[in-house]
Amino acid sequence: MTEKATRPIRSDETLLAILEALEAQTAPSVSDVATHAGVSKSTAHNHLSTLREHGYVVDGERGYELSLRFLELGESARTNTEIYEVARPHADELSRETGLLVNISVEDRGKGVYLYRTRGDDRIRLSTRAGEVHELHCTATGKAILAHLPERRVESILDQHGLPKRSENTITDRETLRSELAEIRDRGYSEDNEEYGQGLRCVGVPVLNGDDAVVGALSASGPATEVVGERLATELPRRLKRVRNRIELNLRDY
């Protein structure tokens, strides 16, 4: 678990607040950034100027924007993640076979992050943005990961982030979640039954490394009207487990 800094660097915290302000807004002005970050306009301007000089910020006609330098950094971080390079081709193959949106997700600071998303059917109008952060308790990948984390780690995550309600089907009670996590361990796969969003159903499996520690999860998502019956209960779990087994075998040699 990451420890808190005993003596946080104030200027670093200010810089991070400014970067978050840029991420949260569309081409904000200096005043917009200052207000969002809770700093003076002159402080915001000085930090933005420094970021621009080093190529991390672009001062466009509409306002300030993050530069593509962050894409380079993000891709470097993603490539260094144990599961990404190994699982990506398998995710592409599964997506082509099923026509569904296939996701590779990992846990980071108590939340899930989609490392890779690939859509096999253009009819499925779902976001495919890598890097998207999601709660663990209401997604198939998230629950697959939670089910295989140490119990103390799970409790720490729930203490930190709670169980926010994303839809009418979201689990918001700890005992109910614990019961479902036990079922996931028994049957070997998880389900998101319109818990993250209405109209979307998903099946997921955990991915373990050679030490049997969970390093991520793989899932297939589609319209709730199509992911039903035998496909939900048998076909997708079988396909996902087969692909997961290949990924785990390759991880041992990675």
Overall description:
This protein is of the alpha+beta class and 254 residues long. The protein has 2 domains: 10-73, Arc Repressor Mutant, subunit A, CATH 1.10.10.10; 81-252, Beta-Lactamase (2-Layer Sandwich), CATH 3.30.450.40. The protein is 46% helix and 19% strand. The chain is built from 9 helices and 8 strands. The protein has helices at 10-24, 30-37, 41-53, 69-79, 84-98, 140-146, 151-161, 174-187, 229-252, and strands at residues 57-59, 64-66, 101-108, 111-119, 133-134, 190-193, 200-208, 214-223. The protein has a 6-stranded antiparallel β-sheet, sandwiched between helices. Strands 1-2 form a two-stranded antiparallel sheet. A hairpin with a 6-residue loop joins β6 and β7 (200-208). α5 packs antiparallel against α9 (229-252). The radius of gyration is 20 Å and the shape is globular. The two termini are 25 Å apart. It holds the Pfam family HTH_IclR. Residues 69-253 form the IclR-ED domain. One of its GO terms (biological process) is negative regulation of DNA-templated transcription. Residues 1-95 form the HTH arsR-type domain. Residues 9-68 form the HTH iclR-type domain.
